[in-house]
Each structure stands twice: as structure tokens, then as C-alpha cells.
Specification:
The chain is built from no helices and eleven strands. With 119 residues, the chain is an all-beta fold.
């Protein structure tokens, strides 16, 4: 059984910063890509950023420069540093990981963490 557990969400004023973490646990042999997605009320889930096992990153164009994704492979954890937050960044943020276990490769999602940015 593999679990992704997010933390670090909360309420912040516009212009502030938050750092999200997502830790993977379970019978994991290898984690390929990890990423963050978000879903605002009434909208579809959208890509925020992804990072490969070797550290190559990809960002949504609109977030480049404000958000930074990183990971610690030894800790099986991915991070999202969010700076200069705006009210439109308000959403539930979900962690995603492409995980290999002893007998399976599968995509996993965390339960989500709420980020609310007040104006």
C-alpha cells in the first residue's frame, strides 16, 4: 500500500508564501515523476509543476517565477515553494507520484491540502 500525505497548506495574505510538502510511504522501490496539481472551486484540476527523479522540472507557464518544485529522493518527498501568492492561487493542491512497487507501477494521488489566499 502506497500513501501520499500532503502538508503545509493554510490561509495566507496576498503576497505571502507557503511551502507544501508531500511524503510518500509504503513498499516503494522507485518513484519516477512527482508533481503538484490544483483545483479551484468550479474549475478543472490543473497542472502546477512536475519534477523527474533526476530533478528536471516543468511548470505551468502562468506560475513560472513564483512557484518552485523540488524533491528529496531519500525522503521520498516533493515540495512546492509558493511565493508572492495571489487570491487566484486559492485551491486544493494535490500531490501526484508515478510509483513503482515490487509488483506494480501506478499513479498515486494525495488527499489534497487547502491553500487560501486572502486579498
Amino acid at each position: 500500500q502506497v500513501q501520499l500525505v500532503e502538508s503545509g497548506g493554510g490561509l495566507v495574505q496576498a503576497g505571502g508564501s507557503l511551502r507544501l510538502s508531500c511524503a510518500a510511504s509504503g513498499r516503494i522501490t522507485y518513484i519516477n515523476d512527482m508533481g503538484w496539481y490544483r483545483q479551484a472551486p468550479g474549475k478543472q484540476r490543473e497542472l502546477v509543476a512536475t519534477i523527474t527523479n533526476s530533478g528536471s522540472t516543468n511548470y505551468a507557464d502562468s506560475l513560472l517565477g513564483r512557484f518552485t518544485i523540488s524533491r528529496d529522493n531519500a525522503k521520498k518527498t516533493v515540495y512546492l515553494q509558493m511565493n508572492n501568492l495571489k487570491p487566484e492561487d486559492t485551491a486544493v493542491y494535490y500531490c501526484n507520484a508515478d510509483v513503482y512497487t515490487w509488483d506494480l507501477r501506478r499513479d498515486y494521488w494525495g488527499q489534497g491540502t487547502q491553500v487560501t489566499v486572502s486579498s
